[in-house]
Amino acid sequence: MNERTGSLSEHAGEDRTGRRVAEARLLFDCERLTLARRLRGLRKNQLAQAVGTTPAAIGRYEAGVQPPPERVLSRLAFALGVPVEFFGPGRAPVALDAAHFRSLRSTTQIERDQALAYGRIATDIARALEDLVEFPAAELPEHPVSPDEIAGPGPVQAARLAREALGCAPGPVPHLVRALERHGVIVLVLPPSTERVDAFSIGAHPRPMVLFNPAKGDYWRNRFDGAHELGHLVMHADAEPGSKVVEDQAHRFAAEFLMPAGDIAGELPATADWARLAELKEAWGVSMAALLYRARTLGIMPEAVYRSAMGGLAKQGWRRQEPGPALPLESPSMLVRAVELAGAAGVDRDRLAGLARVTRADLDLLVPARPRAGVGVTGS
Fold this sequence. Notes:
Blueprint: H1 3-26, H2 30-39, H3 44-51, H4 55-63, H5 70-80, H6 109-130, H7 154-165, H8 176-182, E1 186-189, E2 200-202, E3 209-212, H9 219-235, H10 244-258, H11 261-264, H12 274-284, H13 288-297, H14 303-315, H15 334-344, H16 349-356, H17 360-366
Parallel strand pairs: 1-3
Antiparallel strand pairs: 2-3
InterPro entries: Cro/C1-type_HTH, IrrE_HExxH, Lambda_DNA-bd_dom_sf, Rad_response_metalloprotease
GO molecular function: DNA binding
Protein name: HTH cro/C1-type domain-containing protein
C-alpha cells in the first residue's frame, strides 16, 4: 500500500466514524445514557470527569433537555464501554415493578441502580431471544398477602399454592432454579461488580426475574434465597419493598415451600442434634440454620434451645460456612440454552447482542457460554 492509498483509507475510516456519531446524535435516547451509566456503577460527577464535562451537563443529557455534542457523545461511549449506537432507541421499555431488595441500608443507591440496570438489559436479551426461541409460559400463581399481616396464615397458604402450581411432589424440592425456569421465570447470577447486592426479584412484565448474588457461593443458602424471592413474586406484587414485615413474610414462605410442615415436622429434632441436622440438611437441601429456624417456628424446638443452638453455630464459625461438603450452586440454564439454540439457527452471540441492543461483553457477563450446547430451553 502506498502513502496515498493509506491516506485515503484513513480518511474513509474517519468519515464512517463521523457518520456513525452524527447518526447516533440524531437518534439519541436519553434513557440509554442513564442505563449505560448505571451499568458501569458511575455517579454523574464521575462520568462528567471521565469525559471532560460537568455533572449538570450529564443531567441535561439524561433528562432529554439536549443531546450531547458529537465529540462528547464519542467520549461517553468510550468511557462507558459501549458503541455510540447503544445510545440510539432501544427495545420498547419493559415495565419493572419495584424490586424486592433485602435491606436498603446495606447497599447504596448506586449499587442497587447497577443491579437493576443489569436486570433491564436481561429483559432485553430475553425478549430478543423470544423472537427466535420458544420459551415456557410465565405461570406463577398470585396470592397477595397484606404487608400489614404480621403472623397470619398468608405466607404458608401462598407457599402451598406455589408448590402445587410448580408441580412439586411431597418432600424436598430437588432443583429450585429449574422449577422456576420451567415456569417461565428468568433466573440470573449478577456480575461480580454487584457482589454487595443480595439476591432480589423483579416483577417484570411479562416475565418475572430472580437475580442471585455473585459472591454467595453457598448452595444451601442460595436455595433459600431463591424460595424467598419466589415468595415476593407470589405475594408482593403491590407491596412496598424492603419492610421488615414483608421480608419476614417471604422468609416464612420460603420455609414452608422448601420444608412443608406436614412433611418435615416429624423429622426435626427438639434439641441441637448436629448429626441429625447434618442428615436433614443433605436430604432437604437447606442449611442447618434454616432447619433450626423451622424447628422453632413449628413449635418443635423451644425458643431458649433455638437461641442456644444459634449461638453454638456462631461460636463454631458455622454462621458463615457450615460443616459438610460444598456443593455446586444450582445454575440457571434457560437463557444459556436459548442462546445455544439461537446460535444453531444462525444467530450468533454478536448478532444476538445487536438484536437486544446490548454490548457483547454484557451479554457474555449475564449469559456466559458453556462448552457443550444443550438440547432444549429448560431441560428435563
